[in-house]
Amino acid sequence: MSESLSTVSRLSYSIEEAGMRCGWTRTRTFQLVADGLLTTYKIGKRRFVTELALRACIARLEAATEKGELPRPADRPQRGRTKKAAHTPAESLK
Fold it and tell me: CB 3.0-4.6 Å disulfide test: which of 33, 39, 69, 76 passes with 64?
């Protein structure tokens, strides 16, 4: 028995393809990777997501949702730039 290429499911996807497959934005997909919810592997400079990792991520998201443990995006600490405290003239003289 041989299967045609059109009926064989893929084992892995690029980050963008994985996100599209699940209906997530590119940003959300990378955020799931950064949060450790979506596991990936690299070949050279490219990063890939397996079908199994996608299914496991969705299962983790479902479990966390049922427990009410997922942070809303507004609750998540911002990465990168942070606001610097305003200096008062008295502080600069110290």
Answer: 69
Q: What is the dihedral of CA 49, 37, 45, 17, to 10 degrees?
A: 40
User: What's phi and psi for 47, nearest 5 deg?
Assistant: -110, 135
Distances (CA, A) of 10 to 18, 44, 55: 11, 20, 13
Q: Give the DSSP H/E element, type plus range, for residue 67.
A: helix 51-67
Spacing of C-alpha 70 from chain mean position: 13
Closest to 12 measured CA to CA, from 45, 57, 53, 46: 53
pTM recorded for the entire structure: 0.64
